[in-house]
Every structure is written in structure tokens, then in C-alpha cells.
Write a structure and sequence with these properties.
The protein is about 40% helix and about 5% strand. It has 12 helices and 4 strands. The longest helix is centred in the C-terminal third of the chain and has 21 residues.
Amino acid sequence: MIAVTPYFDTEPAILAPSRLFKKKYKTKSNPNGSDLISLLLAQRHQHLFDERIYGAEGVKSMLERIFHKKCAFCECNISIGAHYDVEHFRSKRYYYWLGYEWTNLLLACHKCNRDYKQTKFPLEVESNRVLVPPLDAAQILDKKQCHILSNGLMAEQTLLLHPAIDNPRQHLQFLKNGQVIGLTVKGVTSIEVYGLNREELVRYRRNLVHKIRLFILYPFELKEKVTVEELKYRVQEAILVKILGRIERSESTFIGFTKAILEHFDEFIIENTDEGLIMPYQQMMKEVAFDLIYGDRNSFPKK
């Protein structure tokens, strides 16, 4: 998970309050065509949500741009035939009045959403949970109080990370073996609820480390002697192309983990022996990596 720029105040037209309150939506469960907000307030927990509204093409396409066609939780790519959902951060099953609320929507893969998160929404203190919709004096839904950053909802103090509200780096720490650990209770809970340590994610992140290490060593596999300059160039390419190049492409998967590789290059790449690879000239490689990451990256000769 990585932080994304808050997107809450640019809602798709189909979810605008003027449409939700005024437009008549005729469905099997709404033969009279009552406006959507009145209908869901009347039906409460029995309301049959219309996916054509919260999952409309305009909603999906905007979320795809915001999250760069990646799952908001695990950062898997969902652009090539993968299944994904327009996910409700607060479950529409319990927070029924937020079922068509733009600020309550995310993009999530089926694994994170259906297999793990489902309807879970743990709080620090259960008694803080909002159980009824915010209504004004006329008993009409107060949409301003449905905003995810409204005082009422923020006071719930959820234990789940939201990529546009929280900085995941303050709550999660990646390890060289591909696993992620929680630095806070919120981090620990999010890992469990979103399934961030499920086998396929850990394997992919671990393989990313392995591929970078192989990229450095591959040209020297059959060489009896490797020059310092050759190794310098390969480390340079690994950092600039395989790591920084990946981070700079917003559509790249697992950017959060890739940033951890950069920050802990010595531990993840140079000193790592988990796959049976032993890096040569380790001290020199550390110096090269340090200069590239923290110094002048243009000081190294191009091949």
C-alpha cells in the first residue's frame, strides 16, 4: 500500500447529491422511482444497492486513474483482465447511508476485498461506531456529514489504513523476505484484514528482490574475474533502472515495497543471502549504492 493524493472533492457526476436526491431511479425494488437517497433511508439494511450507480463507468474510470489501475490495498495490477471491485471502505451492509458516497469508495482486487476485508471495519473503541445516518432537521440525509473526513466519521478512529488519509509508511515495514510487519496497531490490523501477507504477495515481493540481485550478477556468471568498473555499472543500472525507474512509473506494482528496497539496499540486495546468492565486492557495492541513492547520480560514467 502507498499513499495517494486525496481525491474526495472531485466526485463523478452520477454520485453528485443533486442527482442522488432528485433523480428517480426505477428498478425492480423501486417500481415507483423514488429518489435514491429517500429509498435507501426507507429500506435501511434491506436496501438493494444498484451497482449501476456506485459502480458506474464514470466512477470506475475515475478510481482507475486515481489508483493507476492498481488495488488500493495490495498494489496488484488490475488492468489486464484481472477482477476488481469498486470497494466500500465502510461496508454498505452496515453503513447503508454511505453506499453511494463517493468518499467511501476505493478500487480493490477481489482477493483483498472479497476474500479478506469483506465487511470488516474494526475500530479502536467499538462504542465510537456510528450506527445511524446523519439527518438534518427535515430528516434528510446530511451529505456533508457523510464525507469520509467529517468529524463524526473521523471520530470513529478506524484501525484500517486508507491510502488517501494515512501515510502507510508510518504504519507498515517491509522485510527482505517479502513480508510486511505492522509498526502500529493500525498497521498490524490492516495487514490482517487486507491479507497483505498472503502467499502470492509475499512470493511476488521476494521475487522482485531476487530479480534485482540476479540482474546485477547475471553478466558475470561465467566470468572468472570481474572488474570494479563493470560491477559499478551494473549496480548503477540496477538502482537507476530496476528500482528508481520502477518507482517513478505510477502504474508500477508494489511501489511501496520497491521503495523499501531502495531505502535498505544494503540489507535487501547486497548482504542478502536468502536465495543462495553471494554478492562480490560488497563494500565497494555499498559505496556505489550510497553515492547513487544519496549523492550525485550523474557522477558515474555511462556504458
